[in-house]
Design a protein that fits this description.
alpha/beta; about 20% strand; about 30% helix; about 130 residues; 6-stranded mixed sheet; RbsD-like fold; single chain; 5 helices; D-ribose_pyranase
Length: about 130
């Protein structure tokens, strides 16, 4: 058994298999996942686990060089946007319409579904390198 970091075997395996510039997505309970995209469903109840709990856990093991967020988060969920920026202070942020973010899930290694119940709590993480 792992002592630290991600103990969910599916999430741990996805992160371990990431290469430079690969994408991993984390999102709220309502985000539709395209057919063919691996879905890792961690949601057990409303807000369990929260989006930020899962994001912070993934960030313990994943080097991120860029993130993609829905443009709508700026107006519809500014508190979550601030939480994300605090968790990833030196990472480039790209915004796109929510409809484009949903389409982009087809390019991710997996989508991790949380129990989050706030709008636009979805992110695509672009993997960096550690050297």
């Amino acid at each position: 058994m792992k002592k630290t970091g991600i103990i969910n075997s599916e999430v741990s395996a996805v992160v371990a298999n990431m290469g430079h510039m690969d994408w991993l997505s984390i999102g709220d309970a309502g985000m539709p996942v395209p057919f063919g995209t691996k879905k890792i469903d961690l949601a057990v109840d409303k807000e369990l686990p929260s989006f930020m709990d899962v994001l912070n856990n993934v960030l313990k093991e994943m080097k991120v060089q860029k993130i993609y967020l829905a443009e709508e988060i700026k107006d519809q969920n500014p508190a979550q946007l601030e939480n994300i920026k605090k968790a990833l202070p030196d990472v480039e942020v790209a915004f796109m319409p929510h409809s484009e973010l949903k389409k982009s899930l087809t390019k991710t290694h997996a989508f991790i579904r949380t129990g989050e119940m706030t709008p636009y709590s979805n992110i695509i993480l672009e993997s960096g390198v550690t050297f």
